[in-house]
What we know:
Blueprint: E1 2-7, H1 9-12, H2 15-26, E2 31-36, H3 39-48, E3 55-56, E4 59-60, H4 64-88, E5 93-96, E6 104-108, E7 127-134, H5 136-144, E8 148-151, E9 154-156, E10 162-164, H6 167-179, E11 185-191, E12 209-210, H7 212-221, H8 228-240, E13 245-250, E14 260-262
Helix pairs in contact: 3-4, 6-8
Amino acid sequence: MIRVFKIGGNVVDNPEMLEQFASDFSGISGKKVLIHGGGVMASQLQKSMGMTPVMIEGRRVTDEDTLRIVTMVYAGWCNKHITALLQKYGCNAIGLSGADGNVIRAAKRPPIAVDGYPEPVDYGFVGDIDPENIDSGFIGRLLDMGLTPVFSAINHDGSGNLLNTNADTVASSLAIALAGCGEETELIYCFEKNGVLFDRDDENSLIRDMDRKRFLELKAEGRVAEGMIPKLSNSFKAIDKGVRSVTIKHASNILNDTGTILHK
């Protein structure tokens, strides 16, 4: 069994929550992989430099200057800070980007149609991942050595270019690639909410389980929007591709049976 965890930028940007997550995560036995975001910190840095972050359906439009910033934040400070915290709690972590070891190769996204926009949206230096372009064998060897890979959302195209990829997409793609090697794989998204909420302002409105039909209904009603859209879209894609289960939960509850469980 391999468990693939993803923590969001709001967790990474919260010292107390991140510390607790690192402690809990380190106490989970067995093979595990961690993917992290860092979008909150990246947006703060952009604003401090006079730039305006542009997000469309929860995904960051990444021009050349933005790419430099997200690389510094995601693959630099966030990745190494998380790795150091895990070492503190006895988890022998190794921080990576997709370019390291050629482990994740992405393709630059072409302009695509997005609901509500009259013209195709050019996301810039944003990468899309085919799970077949992930070296799952390399990840497996790291796991067999007792190491815990910690991935940022920065990948490469094999031609010398770095690409920013939505961290939820990285997590689901890794889970699919590992499941494709015959490993039972679970995907766990951890963020600052209890799971998928019927009312985003009411933590007690947790939707305990959800199928794809229910997701599309909630999206049409506007109850699921922004960053939750790629999270759920990637979750159902992972289930379709052989991932055993997907759970969305609060980062402080990774040791508890809580959150939203997704199924076909």
